[in-house]
Amino acid sequence: MDLKVEKVNLKEILPLRELFLKENNFQVRYDACHRRGWTDSYLITIDGADAGYGSVKGKDDLSLRDTIFEFYLTPKNRKYSNTAFEMLINASGVKYIECQSNEHLLSSMLFEFSNSASSDVVLFEDDQFAFLNIPGATFRKKTTGDKSFEHKSEPDGDYVIEADGEIVATGGFLLHYNMPFADLYMEVREDQRQKGYGSLMIQELRKACFDAGRVPAARCNITNKASKATLLKGGLRITGYMLTGEIKTPYL
Fold first, then answer.
1. How far apart are CA 175 and CA 185, in angstroms?
2. Which of 62, 70, 115 has its CA nearest to residue 88?
3. pTM
4. What is the pLDDT of residues 175-207, one digit of tens each?
C-alpha cells in the first residue's frame, strides 16, 4: 500500500468534502473558514487514488495553521484512519485537534492522538415544535423606525419581539454555514429577561428559518445555563459539543 498526504489547493479536495458534508448531515461550525481562505488543505491518496483529505486552520490565531479541524476518508479506506491521520499530523506540523463530537471519525482521532479533550461550546439542532405564547407579545420583522436597545452579546437582528409598544428582544439567523443550515442568535433586553421572550424568539426564528429554506441550528457556551435552557425550551436539542485536544508528544 502506498499512502501519501500532500498539501494541495482547496479545489482539489472539494469533491471529497462534498462527500464529507453529505455523510455528516449537520451544521459544520467552521465551514466558512474554507471560503475565507483561512485553511490549508491536504489530499490523502492510497495507491494513487484519492482516498480522503484533511483541513487545517488556526486555533486562536487565524494567521497560524496549527489545528486539524476536518478529516475524512472514504468508507472503504477507514481501516487506514490511524496511519493516514498520523501522516497528516507530520505533514502539517499541527499541535491541536478541534472537532465536533457529532463528527465521529475526527472525534475518534482526537481521543486516539491527543492528551485530553475539553469543551467550551454546546451544539444544538432542530428538534420538536414548540407551542409557546406570551399574551401581548408580537414577533415580526424589524422595520426602519424601530427603536432597539443596547446589545451586549449579539448583533441587532432582523426580527423583533414587541410587547407593550417596546422592543424586548431581537434575533436572526446567519447564513454562512454549509447548506441547508443556518445559525440562530437572539438577545433579550436586560430588564425583560426570564419572562420567556428568549424562548419565544427561538421558536419563531425556527419558523422563519424554515420559510427561508434553511434548517435551524445554534450553539452556546457550555457554562451559559440561561442560553442553554432558552434554546431547549424554544424547540432545539443538544446534538454535540466542540472538542479540543493537544496532540500527544510522540506524534509531534
1. 12
2. 70
3. 0.92
4. 999 999 999 999 999 999 999 999 999 999 999
Query: What is the residue whose three cell numbers read 454549509?
Result: 178
Q: How is domain 3-121+242-251 classified at the CATH fold level?
A: Aminopeptidase (3.40.630)
Sheet holding 215-221, edge to edge: 3-8, 40-46, 49-57, 67-73, 96-100, 236-246, 118-126, 215-221, 181-188, 166-174, 159-163, 137-141
The span from the CA of 240 to the CA of 121, in Å, is 9
List CB contacts of 204: < 8 A, sequence separation 6 or more: 139, 159, 161
Closest by CA to 5, choosing from 77, 98, 62, 64, is: 77
Contact 243, 101 (CB under 8 A): yes
For domain 128-234, give the fold.
Answer: Aminopeptidase (3.40.630)
